[in-house]
Amino acid sequence: MIIETRHPEKSLQSVLKEYYFIHIQSNSVIKHIPIIDDCCYDFVFFKEMDGSFSYSSKNDFIPLSNKVFTIHNLKPPYKITIQHTLTFIAIKVQPWANAYFFSAVKASGVVDLVNYDASLLDLHDKLFNEQPLANRYSTVDQYMKNKCISLTPSMEVVKAVCMHIYDQQGILTVSDLSTVFNKSRQYLNKVFKKEVMYSLKKFIITVRILALVKYKMKNASISLTQLSYTYGYFDQSHFIRDFKKVCGVTPRHFFNNVPEFMLRH
Predict the structure, then answer these.
(1) Are the C-beta atoms of 19 and 92 separated by less than 8 Å?
(2) Do 134 and 10 belong together in one domain?
(3) Cβ 1 vs Cβ 30: under 8 Å
């Protein structure tokens, strides 16, 4: 099993969050990859085009047969089932760039992105030519640099909001943001949904729960009660409800079944 993440070239980091490469051999004991939606869309380049994506509490599934795809508007929990080997390279965009890249996506599900941009097919072929990983990342860098992407004024506003939410680990409210940025809640909600394609409240909850999950992974002995208090949840029902919105299962079920590794969608 190979897992590697890499930051994009510095000039691209205002719109791209990270690249990641995963390869799992057919003889691996890992047959399922759980995924948590972090509100950042991905371009996923899939070599084998052979697997399935399951979602929702009913365990609905969709075959993974596209060369380049993203996941849009589905309910957690999410999981990829590996048929034989699995190899993919993904480009994770910054949340304030979601709409820039994906606003045309309307249908829910595993969405074939080649239907929206045929040049992604050529990029897919280049990425899976035999070459060092560093060269593949450079290929993505060049592809994105050729697009000459720049942030719009509203993207700049949303970037500042997102960065503040990250800094506070999601332990804040929309009213708090309204005060910090001297903007009405209505304005912040509207501009955020336009650029991120998620509601501001959903993003805040997601950042908070992901921060909490990472903390628990590094501090296994902490109780769920103390963990919830650490992240500002003093009502256990509120904590469980928010956790299920992000991860699709209760905190106890999640942490009792922590896989060998976690992926963020």
Answers:
(1) yes
(2) yes
(3) yes
Give me the percent of the chain exceeding a pLDDT of 70.
97
Cα distance between residue 170 and residue 213, in whole Å = 13
Do 68 and 181 lie in one domain? The reply is: no
DSSP of 41-98:
-EEEEESS--EEEEETTTTEEEEE--SEEEEES-PSPEEEEESS-EEEEEEEEPGGGH
Using CA atoms, how far apart are residues 123 and 226, in angstroms rounded to an integer?
Answer: 47
In whole angstroms, give the CA distance from residue 163 to residue 17. 12
Is residue 140 within 8 A of residue 123, CB to CB? The reply is: yes
Claim to verify: residue 64 and residue 112 sit in the same structural domain: yes
Q: What is the DSSP string of 210-223?
A: HHHHHHHHH-TTS-
Range of the domain at 75: 2-145
The answer to whether residues 164 and 33 belong to one domain is no
Which residues make beta-bridge pairs with 35?
Answer: 78, 263
Q: Tens digits of per-residue pLDDT, 224-256?
A: 999 999 999 999 999 999 999 999 999 999 998
Q: Do residue 135 and residue 189 come from a single domain?
A: no
Q: Which residues pair with 264 in a beta bridge?
A: 36
Write down the pTM of the prediction: 0.94
| Total domain count, the chain | 2
